[in-house]
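Hi C.,

You asked whether I'd gotten around to modeling the 112-residue construct. I have! Everything is below, sequence then structure, no commentary in between.
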Amino acid sequence: MAITSMTFVIALYIFMLAAFTGYVVISRVPSILHTPLMSGSNFIHGIVVVGALSALFSATTVPEQIIGFVGVLFGAGNVMGGYVVTDRMLAMFKPSAATTTAKNAANQKAAS
């Protein structure tokens, strides 16, 4: 299946439009919401992995297989990164050991 120059131009136009739209949407999100936004987008990364697997399984030539494999790797990296960000975000809300020890000591002193 040969890609014509017009098909390439249309694909490039759609890619550029999607990239610009994504940049504009994300740039309008307040910085305090970037971490929850990234951890909430894990399901999108899962869809990327499914799409990349679909492309990999339907690949017939070596370059298509390489592109599909790279897509699966990048998608899996995005999923892993999303879970790491979520774990770090949740760790910010856990009390530290020093704080817990100090509260327990204060409670024991108050109970005496």
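If it helps when you're writing up: The mean pLDDT is 83.

Thanks,
B.
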